Amino acid sequence: MDLTTFIQNVNGKDFAKAQVIFDDMMNAKVTNALDKEKVKLAGQIFNGDPEEKDDGLPSDVEPEEIADTEEEDNEDEGTSDGSDSEEESGEEESESEDEVEDEKVQAA
What we know:
Elements: H1 3-11, H2 15-46, H3 63-107
Helix pairs in contact: 1-2
C-alpha cells in the first residue's frame, strides 16, 4: 500500500481500493503526529522541558504574514470608505455649480 498504488487506483477509477489506501495513509499520519505530541508532553511533564507557546497557526505560516494581510485588509476598508465620501461630496459640488450656470443662462 503505497502512493503509487493509490494514484494508479484513482487514475483507473477504482475508488473503493483508493479509499482504503487513502484511509490507511491518513491514519498513519495522524498516529505519527499523536505519537510526537505524546513524546513532547511527556518531556514537559517528566523532564521539565519548557512548554512551547502554541499560537494556533500552522507551522508553515509565519505570524508576520498574518499581520501583514490583516493590515492590508484594514487599509482596503479604510480606502473604500474615504473615497466614497469624497466622491459623494464632489458630486454635490458639481451639481450646485451646474445649477448656478443654469440660473445664469435663464436670467440672460
